[in-house]
Amino acid sequence: MQCPVCRRSTTWTDNPWRPFCCERCQLIDLGTWAAEGYRIPGSSLTADASPRQADKEEQSDDAPSER
Ligand SMILES: [Zn+2]
C-alpha cells in the first residue's frame, strides 16, 4: 500500500506507523488533521453582520415643478 502522506510504498505488516511509512509522515498527517480540527467555532470576526437596509422607495420622478 501507499503512504497517504508521501505516496511511498509502505508495508502494512510490522509497521507501527501504518498506514504511514514512518513516524514523520504520521506526525505530518496528524498535524494536518489537528490544524483543521483546531478551528475554534464561533471565533469568526464578523461583527454584527446585519447592515441596515435603507429600502426607502424614492419616488422622486413626480417632482412638482414650480412655475
Ligand atoms: Zn510517508
UniProtKB/TrEMBL annotation:
One of its GO terms (biological process) is regulation of DNA-templated transcription. Transmembrane segments: none annotated. Keywords: Metal-binding, Zinc. InterPro entries: DNA_gyrase_inhibitor_YacG, Znf_NHR/GATA. Residues 58-67 have a biased composition (Acidic residues). Pfam families: YacG. GO terms for molecular function: zinc ion binding. Residues 41-67 are annotated as: Disordered. PANTHER family: DNA GYRASE INHIBITOR YACG. This is DNA gyrase inhibitor YacG. The gene is yacG.
